[in-house]
Amino acid sequence: MFARLLAILLLALAVTIPRAALAQAPGEAAQTVVHLLDYVGVDYPGFVRDGKVLNEQEYKEQVEFTRQVGELLAKLPPADGSARLAEDAAMLRKRIEAKAPGEEVSRLANALRWEVIAAYKLTVTPKRAPDFKLGAQRYAAVCAGCHGVQGRGDGPAAKDMKPAPADFHGAWRMSQRSVYGLYSTISLGVGGTPMAAFQQLSEDERWALAFYVASLGADTGTLEKGRALWEGKAGRATFKDLREVSTLTDAEVLARHGVDAAAVFAYLKSRPEALASSREAPLDVAQRLLAESLAALRAGEPERAHRLALGAYLEGFEPAEPALDALDRALRLEIEAHMMTYRNLLRASGSITPAEAQQERLRALLGAAAEKIAGTELSPSAVAFSAFIIILREGLEAILVLAAILAFAARSGRPAARRYVHAGWIAAFVLGLATWAAASTLIEVSGANRELTEGVTALIASAMLLYVGFWLHDKTHAKAWANYIREQAGSALGAGTLWSLALLAFFAVYRELFEIVLFSEALWAQAGPAGHGALAAGATGGAAILAIVGLLIFRFGLRLPIGPFFAVCAVLLVILAIAFAGQGVAALQAAGLIAADPIAFVNVPMLGIFPTAQTLAAQAAVLAVVIAAFAWSRAVARKGAPAA
Description:
Blueprint: H1 2-15, H2 19-22, H3 24-47, E1 48-49, E2 52-53, H4 56-75, H5 85-97, H6 102-119, H7 132-142, H8 144-147, H9 171-175, H10 179-188, H11 203-214, H12 220-231, H13 242-247, H14 250-257, H15 259-270, H16 282-298, H17 302-317, H18 321-327, H19 329-347, H20 353-376, H21 380-411, H22 415-442, H23 447-473, H24 478-487, H25 495-527, H26 532-559, H27 562-590, H28 613-638
Antiparallel strand pairs: 1-2
């Protein structure tokens, strides 16, 4: 039994690990492919013109790069959209061997580069705004010797180097390189040249260095113009986050968006931290994605429309929930219900009119929510209260489970039981801290992965709560308890139950910590530096109240006689199992994995009661199992046989 439970635990933990992390080795190979394609796209037009080779050695290198691309792609595991990669790589090589025009080869190489990035979900952007000063320091330490202090390829070590170090002031060549391309070069080096890989630098250092190098050739007048335009709100729709700044090239920005956008782009590469202050507010994200979803529906793409509507909830509305919940909980629940209705309308076939009408209602409600949040300006008191509510709301369920189990373990007659419970919640706490570190510094947990993790852990916890609840029910009579103690020869709990208690404590605590971490991260970003102290104060107050509640429940439980105590614990755990079942299904609905059919019913999220057919059906099924199991237990007891 322990092996099965351990497998379930590992499955739940795997849910929280990003897919890219699970495929690190393929990811490194895929990044090498992208790196080679970047070089081909940039360098080939300079060596082949009008069907003639201008530099035979460099041309052979381009052919060799495309050969390596084909070999690496053949070794990569299958992935979404990877079927066409080999064909496109073969086509690219044929066109290079045919000495095709540079513009055509660059287009094919860039298209294949983005196909590889999409297929293998490569990270093409830094996790935080790079530190430009750090980039300057690292450049002076590891690059200036070859590339020169100003980046003109004239460093003291550049003499007799073949090929010569790159000149970062070369306007045409640098206009073809993205910051991500420079990051790849710094990370992987260039084979057959003096350019080595700088893996000894951290990821943050390499990104900082890439942004610094990308800005070396920028004109002061252009940077000043870009700064003025950006501060005047120009370019905000074009450059929404670091992804655009990291992956686009100067040439692409100029061709697509014009001279002003190119100036803004140059400024943002030299001051990437400017993007942080302009990050799109969560409710603005919701409004934008809703508009895009309706546009997709009108274009005859219902599946894409539904994905965008789901993103509007997960990535737009849900991060704003804590702040809105503290101000107007009824409005928060109303918006959730209307978003579900809108997604159901997108799933259903028929006229577009109902979806349009529903979206109009939603946009009005989101506007009202934005006004409420903006009106408070997230004052210190609002931040503190929101943090307090997050801790109290999410932690209360875990406290109830832990208090009941610890009190029960104290009465069991076996000290090891409490150690197992403590081991379970401590492990959850450690993993919760690791999740916080990952969410704030390493990865950005998507809304879908967040809901999937919450759903899986809630359903597992529900099953384990039922198991422990049934065990307690069988011991509610003093005679049964005495017989059980005698049968166990002083050992009140079997090994299987001990591990069940440990895993139950783990899942009950980790599920709530996971929600606390992600909601607090959103609140931390909204509060800004001025509100961080208030957030910490509110969270501390919520944790203190939870500790007091847990202590009171624990103390009260110890005073109960054996029979009533176990009966109360059994009922409590069963209620929580039913609540977790509803919450688990609701989380999977939010992730878009289970349909959500609304019905007229009360909405009590704390008890896992949501007005949808699926959540109520899941809770009804758990309740039916509980009733059947208790009826069977009583029938066995009447016959005088010990209950299993």
